[in-house]
Every structure is written in C-alpha cells, then in structure tokens.
Design a protein that fits this description.
The protein has helices at about 10-20, 30-90, 95, 100-125, 130-145, 145-160, 165-190, 195-215, 225-255, 255-275, 290-295, 300-330, 340-365, 370-390, 395-425, 430-455, 460-480. The protein is mainly α and about 475 residues long. The protein has two domains: about 95-285, Growth Hormone, Chain: A; about 300-484, MFS general substrate transporter like domains (Growth Hormone, Chain: A, Up-down Bundle), CATH 1.20.1250. The longest helix has about 60 residues, at about 30-90. The radius of gyration is 36 Å and the shape is globular.
Amino acid sequence: MRRPRSGPDERLGTEREQYDDPAPAPGSSRAVRAGRAARATARGTGRAAVVTGRGLLRAGAATWRGSRRAGVATGHGASYTLRQARRATHAEGAGASGLSRVIELHAFNAAGDAAVAISLAGTLFFQVPTDQARTQVLQFLGLTLLPFAVVAPLIGPLLDRVPHGRRWAIGATMALRAFLCWVLSGAVSSGSWALFPAALGVLIASKAYGVTRAAAVPRLLPSGLGLVKANSKVSLAGVAGAAISAPLAIGASRIGPAWSLRYAFLVFVGATILAILLPAKVDHVAAEVPGRDERRRTPVPHAVVIGLRSNAGLRMMSGFLTMFMAFLLRDAPFPGWEHKVALLLGLVIGSAGLGSTLGVALGNVLRSVRPEVLVVVTVLVDTAVAVLVALVWALPTAVLLGLTAGLTQSLGKLSLDALLQREVPEHSRASAFARSETLLQLSWVVGGFVGIVLPLVPQVGLGVAAALLAGWSAWTLAAVRHPR
C-alpha cells in the first residue's frame, strides 16, 4: 500500500523534532561532553585573565620606571640649570663679595616688572586711529614723568640721608610692589578706580629700586672687576629673568589679567626675602655722612657731565624712533608690507630689543674699558647710523637703526652708571642717580614729542633727528675738549 502523504503540520512537527535540542540527561555522554567544554572554556578564560593581568602589571611597571626616569632626568636637568646659573652669578669673585645676591635679586625684579607690563598691556593701552592717537600718546609721555617727579626730589635725598638702611629700602620697594600687584589684580577684575593709582605706585617703586640698587653696587664690587662689567652682569640677569618670566606671565594671563598680577605678587614676595638677605656690606658706610653745607658744595665731576650729555642724546634718539617709527610704519609701510604692518613693527622694534640685549652681553665681555671713552663712542656711532638711514631709507637700514639704537643706549647706560658709581661720593650717590634717571627720562620724552609732531615723511623726520643728534654729539665733544 502507498503510504499517505504527510500534511504541512506533520512536516513542521518533524522539523521541530530534528532541530530542537532537549537538555541532556545527567550522566549521559552529551552531558559529559558539555561539562568538559565548559571546564575548557573556564580554563581558557582564566589563562587569558592571568595573561592580561601580567601584561597590565608589566605595563604599569614599565610606566612607573619611565615616569621615574623622566622625573629623575627632569630633576637632574633643573639641578644642572640651577648649578650653571649659580656658577655664572658667582663668577669672577661676585660670590665672595656678595654681588651675586644683587644679581639674583635683579633677576627677580625684572621678572616681576615683565609680568606687570604684560598684565597691564591690554588694560591701560589700546589702539586708536592715527589722527586721534597723537594726543593720547602725548598724555602718556607726560604720565611717564610722574614717577621721576617723586624719585628725584624725594627718594634720592632720603636714601642719602639714611645710608645704613639700603637693604630695607630695597626690600621696601619690593614689598610695596607686591602689595600693589595684589591691589591691581582686584582692580583689573572689578574695574575699580584704584587701577591707575596702583599702576603709578608700581612705576615709582620700580624707579626707586633702580636708584637704590645702582647706588649699592660699588659696595659689593669684587676686586679686579670693573664697574661696567659688574653693571652688565646685573643687567644680563635682568634680561634672563624677564625672558623666563614673560612666558609664565602670558600663560597666567590666558586665565585672566588678574592671574598674571597674582603671579607678579609671588615674584615680588620672593624678591623681598632676597633683599632682606643681602650682605651686610650693603648697609656699610666707609666714611661719615657730611653735613648739609658740604653736600651743596659737591661739584659734578667732568666725566659724569660727559656721560650725562651722551646718554641724553641717546635717549632722545630712542624716544624719537619709538614714536616716529610707530606712526610712520603704520601709515606708510614699505612696499609689499601693506598687509603686514604688525609684523613690520615687530621686526623693527624687535631689532631694538635685540640690540639692547647685545649691548648688555657686550658689556659683560669687555674686560678693560674706560667708561668715559665708551660713552662718547656710543653717541658717535648712533649719529653715523642715523645719518645713513636718513640718506638711504629701506627696510634693512631701518632694522640696522633699531639694532644700533638699542645697542648704543644699553652700552651708554652701563657706562654712565659706572661713572656715577666711580666719580660721585658715597654721601650723594643716590641723589645723583635719581637726578640722572630724571634727566634721561625727560630726554626720552622730548625725543618722543619731536617724533610725534614731525610730518610722517622718512627723509624729513629722520633728517631732522640726525641733524639734532649730530649737533648734540658736537656739544658732547666740546665738553671733552674743554673741561670747563
């Protein structure tokens, strides 16, 4: 008989019987095989976990060793840098005489001043069109004279009358700036009225520190080291301190201008401690302080007169170039630089900064140099380059002029400081430094005023400046030839 054909439901039931996997009974062969497979899987998972754990342990140990080596290398690098810096500040007898303390202190001073300048750069000053900028720049030039109106008649004579407190005077200028930086940090954040008075107080304290520090350097001068080189060592430390501090201040200012001022506060606190730890020789006076009549009878030494004349001419040229170039290169840039005015200004101004640094480094290299000769050479070189640029106006000559102006101003100032420290008696040295700083700042303001009022024509402006500087050089040479 033919077997009856199965229907759809029967075929579906058959397929279900074929593909369904019922649970195996305990003790059956299928259960044994399933148990073995489970144990093998567990053993594989355990071995993988052990291998993974060992790998993590090895990676962690390697990371720890690498971090430790990196930390040790960083520590060694920092230690080496500190040893080299200490060796440089203690070289040529500066460590034994105590001059190294002044060098380190000046590095902190420059670091704090750089932080303050970066903090206030975008707060107190702003860009305006050329037709409106000249009046505001003239107001700024007048503002720069206010600190010297206090330093020259008040602080200089006060320091001369209290010759035993130089360490505390230097420390007071640092502590005052630390306090004012903290006030400024709050004023910048809130827009308080205390912003401008606090900023002016920082400028006055900075100038007072410069006068006090310069007057104290001869008391710590090592034997066999000239004053020009000693001053250049101090100035070079300032350049290094500002170069290290500027990136840190910029990074702090990214959070907010108040944070860079708080960073300056910490720097000046450290400087205050260093000032108090200066050697006791800073407060030592070799002779008794003369009376008021003897102070008035003290004449200005002839070498100091030459140094003041030369530096006044250099500062006048520096002020002129700062203002004249800033307006000229913005309104009439060189061909091809019309859309790169900021880069052009940075190139010319940067060359002046580079020249100033080179001047400080050169003063540190010079061993036996007479400051009364060097100060005259600087003004003559500046005059020659100014005449050249007035005749040949181009980008290379403009950069050369900025480089020369920075270099000669730096060397001239080092020479003038050496002359004041060598020629002026101890009892009136601080007053002499205060008056000289006031004269130099006034010369810079006069040069800046000339640069603002002259027409923005390169040949006209630079020609007038070169003629004025040539006449000033002749006047200086006349003082060299005729001491009376």
